[in-house]
């Protein structure tokens, strides 16, 4: 166990994890997941929101097994390595709101940080604007961190608190198995299923679940985090997490070349739009929210799996944010962002800046 811990704490460990995620994401796409969306935490949580009826956008409804696997894989790794630590109580309402606006920003861009990298690895030039916005938002968040921003210390709590998000994911898995999709039907029992669009594109259930479990284990061990990679580079000039971030890009690109999934260009890219400013601005909002909350959407799922109740609140905020985004017309489409989405980005930036400026401890 100690040797395993040392490996995943090393630079080669984080590089291997990024490489595995990049290759598996490309394979999931080949097996049926949406193009340039082998793995997208924000998009998959949006699909989950649709599958349980929180929104009724018919093209994005599927209870994604990858998200379930992320949490349960992290739970398994945390118990194996004696790192399951139930904790909570660090400004939960703030974390919830950050989750809501992180999702809104991501859906204006049409992807989380993971998908921004995977879109670039698939040849989508619009992802360059998204990644630039992500770095800008994280840079603003890093400035707040440097100037005393702090959500407070989480407290040790009951084991049951740490288990609530994994149990929720187990419940989702039971729902998925008990209500399988019926060919040609948009609803099966209590779950909704897309018949067309991104929600209808998915790899086989058990393949997706196993990939999610594996990534959950590896990411929990290595502390893989796309937001943390840029934050550490900006604040501390440290490149440990950045090595995993870059490995994800390089290996996903290589896998896409091998699998015939690399299609360079700006126009006609799958589930993407070419309104460059709003690609940038949406990810500024998402990056700032991730930085203020202390982790990218993937990292929040992994922390929730290891007992962090505050991360679980952020995850719930993202799922609720997805419902708001589609019920109120905030999410973009391949045609671009609408007026409601533009207003939501402005409001979201104002809320995040308010949180950043007012939650600072001064000497």
From TrEMBL:
Q: Which Pfam families match?
A: Sulf_transp (PF04143)
UniProtKB keywords = Membrane, Transmembrane, Transmembrane helix
Q: Sorted alphabetically, which InterPro entries does this protein's record hold? A: Seleno_YedE, Sulf_transp_TsuA/YedE
Which domain of life does the protein's organism represent? Bacteria
The residues that cross the membrane are: 12-28, 62-81, 93-116, 128-145, 157-179, 199-219, 240-260, 280-299, 311-329, 341-359
* Matching NCBIfam families: seleno_YedE
Q: What is this protein called?
A: Sulphur transport domain-containing protein
């Amino acid at each position: 166990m100690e040797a395993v811990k040392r490996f995943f704490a090393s630079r080669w460990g984080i590089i291997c994890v990024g490489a595995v995620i990049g290759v598996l994401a490309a394979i999931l796409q080949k097996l049926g997941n949406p193009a340039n969306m082998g793995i997208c935490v924000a998009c998959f949580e949006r699909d989950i929101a649709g599958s349980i009826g929180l929104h009724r956008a018919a093209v994005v409804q599927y209870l994604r097994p990858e998200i379930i696997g992320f949490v349960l894989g992290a739970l398994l790794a945390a118990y194996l390595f004696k790192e399951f630590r139930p904790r909570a109580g660090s400004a939960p309402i703030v974390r919830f709101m950050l989750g809501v606006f992180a999702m809104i920003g991501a859906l204006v861009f049409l992807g989380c940080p993971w998908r921004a990298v995977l879109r670039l690895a698939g040849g989508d030039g619009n992802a360059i604007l998204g990644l630039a916005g992500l770095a800008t938002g994280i840079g603003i968040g890093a400035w707040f961190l440097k100037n005393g921003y702090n959500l407070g210390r989480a407290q040790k709590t009951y084991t049951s608190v740490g288990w609530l998000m994994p149990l929720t994911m187990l419940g989702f898995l039971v729902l998925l198995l008990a209500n399988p999709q019926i060919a040609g039907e948009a609803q099966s029992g209590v779950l909704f299923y897309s018949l067309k669009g991104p929600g209808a594109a998915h790899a086989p259930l058990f393949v997706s679940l196993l990939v999610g479990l594996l990534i959950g284990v590896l990411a929990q061990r290595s502390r893989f985090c796309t937001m943390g990679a840029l934050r550490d580079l900006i604040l501390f000039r440290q490149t440990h997490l950045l090595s995993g971030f870059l490995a994800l890009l390089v290996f996903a690109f290589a896998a896409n070349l091998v699998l015939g999934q690399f299609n360079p260009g700006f126009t006609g890219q799958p589930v993407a739009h070419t309104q460059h400013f709003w690609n940038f601005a949406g990810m500024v909002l998402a990056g700032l929210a991730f930085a203020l909350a202390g982790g990218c959407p993937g990292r929040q799922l992994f922390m929730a799996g290891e007992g962090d109740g505050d991360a679980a609140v952020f995850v719930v905020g993202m799922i609720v944010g997805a419902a708001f985004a589609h019920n109120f017309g905030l999410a973009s489409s391949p045609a671009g962002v609408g007026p409601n989405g533009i207003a939501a980005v402005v409001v979201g930036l104002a809320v995040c800046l308010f949180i950043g400026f007012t939650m600072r401890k001064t000497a």
